[in-house]
Amino acid sequence: MSSLPAAGRTPRAQAPAATPSTTTVILAVAAFVIVTTEFLMVGLLPALARDLSVSVATAGQLVTLFALVVMLAGPPLTAWLSHLERKRLFLSVLALFAASNAVAAVAPNIWVLAVARMVPALALPVFWGTASETAAQLAGPERAGRAVSTVYLGISAAMLLGIPLGTVAADALGWRGAFWALSLLAVLVAVLLQLFMPTTAATAPVRLRTQARILRDPAFVANVLLSVTVFTAMFTGYTYLAEFLERVAQVPAAQVGWWLMGFGAVGLAGNWLGGRWVDRQPLRTTAVFSLMLAAGMLATAWLAATPVALAFALGLWGIANTALYPICQIRVMKSAPQSQALAGTINVSAANGGIALGAILGGASLSSWGVGSVALLGAAVAMLAAVAAVALGQWLNQRPAKPD
């Protein structure tokens, strides 16, 4: 389990001047466009609700709809489509996102917009799981972790910057203009993939029941549950970070979006660190960054009244937060080398479950003890994740090795 295997799909015909690293960078840009489509909505909600004459709470259900579709549809769809040639699959996903974002941009009412949001939610987890696997296979086992972390640079950037970008885009372009921009970006990335990505060999379809055997492995299930715990910790605090900055740190409302953008930009350093360390010690790396996440959340809660100290605390929180995205994905993929695409997508579904659970816990904490408590509760869950990672590592070391 020290590296992701390179066996399986291998490049069949490579475009001129194309290299695995070039393809990986383009996949990272594609990941940014695709995942931004999910998170941009949060920043667009006020303007969108006004334009479509619905409440913000009603418009917010579009975010819930997207997350539920990703969580429920991701694993079966990925198992069904994972045998397809990857270049064709990725081009189809990007075409779908371009079309759906264009429909969202001209949606006359909330119902058309809901359909335009639901359709790409079906494809997002398929891309998320298979892009990670493809990058690992193109890079080879020695650089698999770094390749996956490069793809996750786009995913992490979208998750961390999508909300503040939505806020800024709503002011500059309007919510319809933001969707048009995403549609155009999807088309441009599709052109780049067509030009530079090598064609990979398709494989024979594998029955869903056969792929789902990984769910019988207690080690795999434990790794997925660990991801749920980690993402619960992350989003217990991050979901309400804007509210925390405004009410506890007294950041002016007009500056909150820029603070969030800074949080994400500084945090992207964690993506590089996580990719470098996770290949050799995935569980230990999970524990270390979970403890760092807890420390950053606690420091943010304690230092909120001092802007300079708050900036450093948020930087620590952001680095750990971003590092844990690729760490969790690579760790779960390593635990099921025989079915990495499905394993990656199951982890995406688990992550969305953790996101939802974190938002629920944070909301309950906010209602009961005030917005300042969300960082403290998130830190407690992060420490629980660190303990769980250490315990899982000890159990795996004592577990008899399975025969090949």
TrEMBL record:
Q: Which InterPro entries match?
A: MFS, MFS_dom, MFS_Efflux_Transporters, MFS_trans_sf
Compartments where found = Cell membrane
List where the protein spans the membrane.
25-48, 54-77, 89-112, 151-172, 178-197, 218-241, 256-274, 286-304, 310-328, 340-363, 369-392
Q: Which UniProt keywords apply?
A: Cell membrane, Membrane, Transmembrane, Transmembrane helix
The record's section on Gene3D superfamilies has: MFS general substrate transporter like domains
Point out the coiled-coil segments of this chain.
none
Domain Major facilitator superfamily (MFS) profile as annotated: residue spans: 23-397
- UniProt key word Magnesium: no
In what way does this protein cross or attach to the membrane?
Multi-pass membrane protein
The superkingdom listed in its UniProt entry is: Bacteria
Query: Pfam families, per this entry?
Result: MFS_1
Protein name per UniProt: MFS family arabinose efflux permease
